[in-house]
Amino acid sequence: MEGRPYEVRAATKGVFRELLSDKAGAFGIILLGILVLVAIFAPWVAPYGPTEGSLSTANINPVWGEGGSWSHILGTDPQGYDMLSRLIYGLRTTLLIATAVVVIAGTFGIAVGLFSGYKGGRTDRWIMGYVDVQVAFPGLLIAMIMIAVIGGSKLALIFVLSFNGWMVYARMTRGVVLSVKEQPYVEAAELVGCTPKRIMFRHILPNLVSAISTLAVLEFARIILAEATLSFLGLGLVFPDVSLGIVASAGRDYIFSTPRLIIIPGIAISILVMSVNFAASWLRVALDPRERDKRFAASAISNNGSGAGQ
Amino acid sequence: MVFGVTVVVFVATRLIGDPVNFILPLSASLEQREQLRADLGFDRPILVQFWDYITDVFTLDFGTSTKFTNEETIDVVFRFLPKTLQLVAAGMLVAFVVSLVLGMLSAVKPGKITDKLLVGLSLIGLSMPQFFLAQILIVLFSVRFGWVQIGPGPWTHMILPAVALALPAIGRLAMTVRSAMIDELNSQYVKAAKAKGMRRKRIIAVHALRNASIPFVTLAGWEFIRALAGFTVVVEGVFGLNGMGSLAILAIRERDFFLIQTIVLVVAVMVVLINILIDLVYKTVDPRVKLG
Fold first, then answer.
1. What is the pTM of this model?
2. CA separation, residue B122 to residues A17, A204, B74, B186, B215 (Å)
């Protein structure tokens, strides 16, 4: 989208004002921002390397536990690795994978959806028929088999998760395209002689921004969980790579002896996903003018109501 | 759809490696390996193998497992299937009942404390990975309080796995019931019923519930399919249950081609059956739906 300055300003106006009134959303965004910064600057932020340590530093309790110290805030695992550092490096990998998957699956899915919806007819039927089949697939099983084929590396995970995740974007894009295609302004653009490419990108695509960005953020959260699940099942990354899922699955065998080894990474993943979910709920309202109106109307009514009651 | 899945899995399994290396010890000679490969038929072109497989499936011959020596794969699958079916049935029953009740409770008084609590809890619950939920259940109820034992035993050992499977579904379903119910309770026909003097209980339980259950059925069916299509694997893994999920992991690790194919085939057939079932439920809930 080659937005002109005043258009961009008109579109983003209210987005940030909305953020101030939505506390959960603001909380989510700020937390997510901090986590992203921590992930980017992991080598400077983390007190130790992800695989730094030895048996002499093994099984140290966290600060609040018995014998814990500030040198290992969240304690160490049975290999002697520092939990906090592993989480920070794991966060870096997890965010990298999730971002890559959202970008790849999103771009591909949107392209397919635009093409299919705009072309219509037989092309559309075939493409959507294929999408239906792939959606009906037992996704996790296929992902497990694929990981077994190509092995556990970052690239493999990105590929597998993208392969399993592009259909949502295609379906949604196609739906919006179909409903927008019949609008008078698209017909007008066609009559004036705009090329199909210009119509798609200039006239149809902007309608998708709100829906797609919300979907992308929600998918981001889903992919973080999917990566954790695959790693947990032993079909994710392999040593010495760390992701949040790897850290969580490493504590699996110690659930009865040292439950903190599963609880701390579990909480870390939950916090990350929760902040993403909060951000998504804010984005959904903030980017859609209709939703903003609804919220404004609701607050006006409740203000009137309370005013009348007094 | 079943055919499509079969093709993909067939090709994928041929790519994951050589089962021969998993069956024979490292010391086996090259000739022995070649011999076994020929015996199993893995030395032939892939299209020939595929044709053989398809024709065999139509005569209900699903091949023999290489991991469970000389056992028909279909027998192996049916030995592991009951555990998964128990788990899914118990988990989904809990999920459907609890989410309907909770969703209705919070929709009746939106914005009140029950409602806010439910929305908050589902948001937190949906942000946790399922394996973490399951592990917390174990740590709390089995280790800390010692109420329920895990591992093989009486029927109580299925409580925690079923709850772990149900919790994320409850989060999603209760939210759907809630928003659908709120929409219905604000609609004209509810107002008309109220004006006529109908009791509130009857309005909610009979009129609004029936209309609100259409999105619920859609999503509930999806949850059911999701659970059957391999998502029990996490719960089975954490609780050490021998179900289809554990079997699938084992089959993939051991490169047991025929077993993987049979597992996926059985899952695909179940998914198709569930889809038919959902259509029938739709028809009962909404008489306008035509089966096509």
1. 0.80
2. 27, 35, 39, 24, 18
Here the ipTM equals 0.77
| CB atoms B12 and A232 under 8 Å | no
Closest Cα in chain A to B260: A145
Q: Is B69 on the interface with A (CB under 8 A)?
A: no
**Over 60: is that where the pLDDT of B247 sits?**
yes
Inter-chain touch A277–B5, beta carbons under 8 Å: no
Any CB–CB contact under 8 A between A268 and chain B? no
Set of chain B residues whose Cβ sits within 8 Å of the Cβ of A148: 16-17, 252-253
Does residue A148 belong to the interface with chain B, where contact is any CB pair within 8 Å? yes
pLDDT band at B241 (very low <50, low <70, confident <90, very high): confident
Share of chain B above pLDDT 70, in %: 78
Residue B268 has pLDDT above 90, yes or no: no
Report which of A74, A251, A99 is spatially closest to residue A161, judged by C-alpha positions: A99
Give burial (CB, 10 Å; 0-12/13-18/19+) of A87. Answer: buried
CA dihedral B82, B83, B89, B95 (to 10 degrees): -170
pLDDT > 70? residue A309: no
Residues of chain B with C-beta less than 8 angstroms from the C-beta of A142? 8-9, 12
